[in-house]
Amino acid sequence: MNPKNNLTGQGHIGWIETSICIGSFVHVKMFLANPRELCQMGGTAAWMLPLIGFFGATIIFFILNQLTTTFSRASLLSIAGLFWGRAVQFILGILFSVSFILINGYQLRIFAEFVLTTLLPQTPISTVVISMVILNVYLAFGGFESLSRTIMIIAPIGLTVLTLALTFGGSMGNIYNLSPWLGYGFWDTLGTGVLYTSLYEEIILFGFIAPLFREQKDFRRSGLATLTLSVFLFVFAQVVYEMCFQIRSAQQMGFPLYQVTRLIRFETFLQRLDPMFVFVWASVSSIGLAVGLYSGALTLAQGIRAPDFRPYLIPLAVLSICVAFIPPRSLDAVQTYSIMPWLLQVPFFGLPVVLLLWSKLFYRSGESHP
Amino acid sequence: MTNNSKGANKVTAYIKDLLSVNESTTQTQFSVSPNRPPIRRHLNINKPQKPETITPIPSDVHDLHQLLKGTFRAKRNPDFIIRLLTASWGRITLAFYESVTNSELMQESVIGPLLEYAGSVEDITPQRLADALTYCHVIETISSFEDAVKNIVMGMSLIHIEGFDWAIVVDLRQQQSRGIGTPRIETVVPGPYDAFVEAAQKNLSLLRMRLAVPGFMAESLPSGRRSRGPLYLLYIDGLTNPKLVWEMRRRLKSIDVDMIYNIGMIEQYVQDRPISLFSQMLLTERPDRTVAFLLEGSVAVMLEGSPLVLIAPVNFWSQLHSPEDIYFRWPFGTLARFVRLIGLFISLFLPALYVAMVSFHPEMIPTELMLSIASARERVPFPSFVAVFFLELAFEFIREATLRVPKVIGATIGIVGAIIIGQAVVEAGIVSPVMIIVMAITVLAGYSMPQYSLTFSLRIVRLINLLLGSIFGFYGVLLGLVALIRHAVGLRSLGMPFLTPVAPLEKRFLTPFFRKPPFKEEKRPGYTRPLDTFKAKKVTRPWDASVPLELVFLDESKK
Amino acid sequence: MRLRFQKISLFFALLTLVLQTGCWDRNELENLAFVLTMGVDRSIDNQIDVIMRIAIPGNVAGPTGKTGGESISQTTKPITITARSIPEAVSLAEATVERRIDFRHLRVLIFGEEIAKEGILPHLDVLERFPQFRRSVYVWVAKEGPARNVFLTAEPVLEKSVSRYVDDVARGVIRYGYSRMPTLHDFLNEVDNRQSDAVLPIVGVNPIVSSEKKDSSIKPMPTDKYHQEIAGNTEPGGKTLRALPRSGGNPSEFLGIAVLQEGRLIDKWSGWDARIYGLLRDSYRGGIWVFNTPNGNETFSVIIRRARGPSITVTWDGDVPHIDIRLFLEGQLMNVQSQESYVSTEGIAILESQAINTITKEVDALIRRAQKEKTDPFYLARSIQTQSLTMQEFDNLDWKNRFSNASFTVQADFKIRRPGLRIQSRSDESR
């Protein structure tokens, strides 16, 4: 009956690949304007914000885990459909798809602005956006398996280069730039940190790709690995960024991590390697963007109970391009993109919570459990 | 009007085609992974396409001769011999091709015993006849004329005795083949120096010389409608995963063509993704390599008349490996593998990166070098990517020319190409000297790949990357890189992911890069899912106790 | 069939679309004019002079063995444009320079003394904003007069390449310690810090050497004339802001630092002061120091290296801070000019304490000088920063005012670890 039932017993995705893949989705924002925003919100304590958000995200993930255990790793939307009927599933599917495409579109725009600022100042932005979207569609067309395997090849290089860049960058910085230790104060930092649980809102994707996992153990492991990897990289990047820049500079820096790599300089021959770093980061980001597009298509397919997500990739990619061109200035794009996650974490984190509550309070598994 | 609407229809159909995908094909892809259900889409290979006519063998000598002569056009084809022997006990017909039959063997093992046959004619049976021919090992009884024809074209000799509606065929073929020579493509410094030849029997003997297991199978399968030699499907029963054997057999049997000229054609027929630029199977001329792959759980295909063996499944990394890596001690092997990995990267990306750096990101080049490149480029009228294209073309010409030119002057061409063109091109100011260095390194890196076909794949991909790099700089190279990886991870070699064990990640994902000392590897690589996982005992060096000398007197002092 | 034709035509359409893009950002190296160094001076009419030194690739040693330019005046050409701002100067320069001007290989930016006194921050905005400029360029300030003089006189002793010259100078500064060469990034970081002031190296033009320069080659003057020129110079070189007594070589010399408050030059410190500054700011790494021996006017020399960073503790007495500074140094004896027998376990301690005395005295003098000007380029507040909890608390510190009334103690920890290859000198006692 359910087309996904055919897939049970079919191929599964490895938990390490999944973690790195979704990790790169979470991480797209780090290469964009995120470290600066964190510095604006948290001052010198900005590096703690991802750490605080991490705990919130872990709770959400355990809720997700509980939910998927109860329903033997059905998709969140299928569970919603089971509870509240097809119409709700449909609406939720559209809602999530639109959210993902909104995120994707804005990320695309800022990514293109990034490429324009750093590598190709005179190339029209549309060329960059469209070429990236074509690549994303190609990547997403093979489904999650191909996405995760692709990142598996890029990740060793990407992680090495990222770590190298950050370590070199960090060696240019001063540890006392991290102090005063509590930023704008303890409660301020804590509050902002909780708000920045939105850094990890992409983990909701686990709820939609849950059927792809072989065992619940893999699901749990993968989610926690994603969160750990993300928090590690977020904190690492943020610490390095703050060490390199006096907080007042850091709050006004365009494309923060790029600026960090531009400082790297060891002898005469080992300097100005930033295009190289940008090159590697952008390849990781391209996967992240592709995962965004894929999520949009997948949630739409699940919401309207379509047997295949691939037909939606190209229309959604076109929509995403349209979204990318909504903001007239790059400043507007960054502004909107920094607020959007705060709003989107309501449905993203709310859905699993509500579903879990509903399943505990109102739902009896005897009724129509498959 | 109608044209217009037709056109519109086509456009809508085209857009529909572009935007939609076929029914999901989740069940049809072959995979070795145990999680995936077996393939249900079987071709009905056993059922022949046309009903075969069966003509009984005429018992009358005259009729048989007429029929044979007609079929083989004996008058115009003196190579085909029909001989009528009259023995004391009856008349015997022999039919064979002279060119492929060993006439001495014919005399000794067939004609002699037959003439001396002492039994009665009435109770002669195929079995008794076969018993009489003590020198022949391959004897088959046939009862239809079609079978007779089929066997004769295969090079067998037909023996028929008057008055019976059966015949026997014996194998008296003589293999015309060159002697076993040294490898030509895959040369190694330490290691065996024998290579496969065109005769499959000799090749099999080379393999059996090394492999002493009863399970080593050389299944013969028909090859082509009009080609003689069988295909051999090689595997080790009890070690190779039977799923792989089934799948390969299925694919081989589905090839229904006139003629397979060389094993390279089979590669194209049975490959999972023949459109890809990368070959997903391995062709080797080395028996030792074949044996190694068979023992790792792959299957191999051998074709009569081809000195190469097709091996599948293989992963991409094995195309970067050479048997030397194993024969040398482990540090050299590991180093060589890393060198080749760097070579792979350079061969794919160096020209693109160079063009991107020179014309998009000059900040990456140290100032002095940048200025010296700039001063060299001031005399060059073309943009750098044109120069790279020009050099690529020149190198292609040199390569083709050295292949085609007669061997006697072949060596000179290389020198002429390399020195004259290299030197003169710079002198004439068409390309800059740095560019020559870049291209030379690139080409050398390309030829450091042990697998010959990989070099060609890399060259094409390199050109694509170069194009992207000269349009978008590093951003373009990035697009190319990611798309290339996406393409590569989607490939499968006989159902096995091509980039395993890296993507998908397996436990021993470092084995392609670090060659462990042989005594530390007890397991076969798991990705072919062999039935027998261990290839060695856990401890193969039980005598190796590295203890410092001091322990001796420390021990004494205890006493 | 039709479909395939359509696919092919679509592919070609895309290909041509892509190929059209070929000329957006692709700039071959020979189409670019790389500016290696740049100077900014106050010009007439409230405008600025922007001096750009453009590299001439053809004169850099060519590939086919042809000899390149002999000096930086042959491998580069300076051009000066007067405009209201740097971007305007760049755009005007494009009108005269055939190739497109590119700043991606810019190494150093030199400000004239006058414009430095007015404030350099307005001119740095373009460097922060425009991607072609990097935050790793060096910023120098001319000691006296305009930066243009530095450009016109500079004549490296060895280097033909400007960028290598700059790199060598920056490396040399770390070696001898008479100055500090922060990059633009370091400088801006210090500017953004409200509790600290920034410094920049000053480039002096030696009048004697520059008078020797004729047609981009330097002809050293006869000894008699040279001795006349340097007569009356009693202080050792580098102690004051005076130019070094020397002849021949490069007219530019790199001793001393400029102290800037909010981007305005407020004081210039000599080479000796710069070393002391380095000790306090923890930017000092090593250098040769010459001290008087305790009994007499003879000297001894020590290579002093930083053993570890200085420890700075600030204690509060009400509103008045008390700063405790402790320096950790170690050294290697280089010579004992006096030929006295100091090199023994007891004797060497005398040399050490002599060095410590001199250093603490100089530190004391320099801090008092800074306090007088209400400036703290040493960033002594860094120990407070690491101890404060919130940013508001630290921002409201008003350190510079408090620093000017602060009391302080200086201690130095100095050990001469190695005597070198000879133990005792040829003094009377040992003979």
From TrEMBL, chain A:
GO terms for cellular component: membrane. The keyword rRNA processing does not apply. The chain crosses the membrane at residues 12-32, 44-64, 76-103, 123-141, 153-173, 193-212, 224-241, 276-297, 309-327, 339-358. Signal peptide: none annotated. It comes from Heliobacterium mobile. Its main location: membrane. It comes from the Bacteria. Keywords: Germination, Membrane, Transmembrane, Transmembrane helix, Transport. Belongs to the amino acid-polyamine-organocation (APC) superfamily. Spore germination protein (SGP) (TC 2.A.3.9) family. It is found in: Membrane. The keyword Membrane applies. This is Endospore germination permease. It is a multi-pass membrane protein.
TrEMBL record, chain B:
Keywords: Membrane, Transmembrane, Transmembrane helix. It comes from the Bacteria. The chain crosses the membrane at residues 338-360, 380-398, 405-424, 430-448, 460-485. The keyword GTP-binding does not apply. It comes from Heliobacterium mobile. PANTHER family: LEUCINE ZIPPER PROTEIN 4, SPORE GERMINATION PROTEIN. This is Spore germination protein. Belongs to the GerABKA family. GO terms for biological process: spore germination. The keyword Membrane applies. One of its GO terms (cellular component) is membrane. The lineage of its organism: Bacteria, Bacillati, Bacillota, Clostridia, Eubacteriales.
From TrEMBL, chain C:
Its main location: membrane. It is found in: Membrane. GO terms for biological process: spore germination. Residues 256-420 form the Spore germination GerAC-like C-terminal domain. GO terms for cellular component: membrane. Transmembrane segments: none annotated. It is a lipid-anchor. It comes from the Bacteria. The keyword Membrane applies. Residues 25-204 form the Spore germination protein N-terminal domain. Keywords: Germination, Lipoprotein, Membrane, Palmitate, Signal. The keyword Lipoprotein applies. NCBIfam families: spore_ger_x_C. Belongs to the GerABKC lipoprotein family. This is Ger(X)C family spore germination protein. It comes from Heliobacterium mobile (Heliobacillus mobilis).
